[in-house]
């Protein structure tokens, strides 16, 4: 799918987390290795899920669909809130149509509410033909950077360097 049909002035995120995240780590050998693009209001990724992540043959496992929604929502917060990071506190997923494996899909997130402590993000998964396959909403708790570093067992300087890439 050509992003330019759907979004104007997309740019790829400037820095990925160096850790071993299943969703976005570029070095996790069994991860999704998602890459993200930013527009004015959205964050999106395009990917193809392999058969190794199916439920029924040819269909993406529901847990992987949930992971895609959670991951795009998290990156929407990072890219649209100056590098802030959060923890998922609630998540709903609505499975509308089967998500095929071995076919490109687009996963898009958009912030719908923020109040300083919490952020709500909506997400959708669409086929390359723009058919809605799944949608969801995540609520994130946004801790202070010091709390995040402590809870995530992350070096504070490393965390700050990552966050600064989005300011």
Layout: helices, strands, pairs:
Blueprint: E1 11-12, E2 37-38, E3 42-48, H1 62-80, E4 87-95, E5 104-114, E6 118-127, E7 132-141, H2 145-151, H3 156-164
Antiparallel strand pairs: 1-2, 2-3, 3-5, 4-7, 5-6, 6-7
Largest sheet: 7 strands, antiparallel
Rg from C-alpha positions? 15 Å
Q: Give the amount of beta strand, in percent.
A: 25-35%
Shape field: globular
**Which secondary-structure class do the elements indicate?**
alpha+beta
Number of strands: 7
Unreliable stretches, pLDDT < 50, 5 or more residues?
A: none
User: Going across the major beta sheet, what is the strand order?
Assistant: 1-2-3-5-6-7-4
Overall helicity: 10-25%
Mean pLDDT metric: 92
Q: What is the succession of H and E elements?
A: EEEHEEEEHH
Distance between the termini: 29 Å
Number of helices: 3
Kindly describe this structure.
The mean pLDDT is 92. It contains three helices and seven strands. The chain is an alpha+beta fold. It has a seven-stranded antiparallel β-sheet, with helices on one face.
């Amino acid at each position: 799918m050509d992003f330019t049909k759907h979004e104007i002035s997309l740019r790829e995120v400037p820095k990925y987390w160096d850790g071993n995240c299943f969703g976005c780590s570029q070095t996790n050998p069994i991860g999704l290795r998602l890459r993200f693009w930013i527009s004015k209001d959205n964050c999106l990724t395009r990917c193809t899920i392999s058969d190794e992540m199916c439920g029924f043959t040819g269909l993406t496992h529901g847990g992987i669909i949930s992971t895609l929604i959670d991951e795009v929502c998290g990156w929407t917060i990072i890219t649209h809130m100056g590098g802030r990071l959060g923890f998922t506190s609630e998540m709903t997923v609505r499975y509308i149509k089967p998500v095929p494996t071995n076919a490109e899909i687009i996963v898009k997130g958009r912030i719908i509410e923020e109040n300083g402590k919490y952020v709500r993000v909506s997400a959708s998964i669409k086929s390359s033909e723009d058919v809605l396959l799944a949608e969801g909403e995540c609520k994130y708790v946004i801790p202070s950077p010091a709390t995040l570093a402590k809870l995530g067992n992350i070096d504070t300087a490393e965390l700050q360097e990552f966050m600064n890439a989005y300011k």
